[in-house]
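Person: Please work through this fold.
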Amino acid sequence: MVNAGAHVILMLFELRISYVQSLKDKRRVIKGLKDRLSSRFNISIAELGELDNWNMAILGVAMIGNDRKYLQTQASYIETLILEVKDIELIAVSKEWL
């Protein structure tokens, strides 16, 4: 395997979603967040946990690039954007570099 100086960051965001009354409401909120993040950042994003829980979600985000500092900056922007969403409370964030 050739190491081309690639850096990969994996992030997990544990979210609490307020004011939802059904899984349909939750999916609408999560889809909106995923669409907003995907259109603004070059990331892979998926809902990974708490799929049947109305008020909780776990989102996984992955980014790859050759500049670790740039990826760290982008990760901070993603976290800030999530914090700005009024119906979502960020409970925990975990980051892992590969």
Summary: The two ends are 14 Å apart (CA to CA). The mean pLDDT is 93.
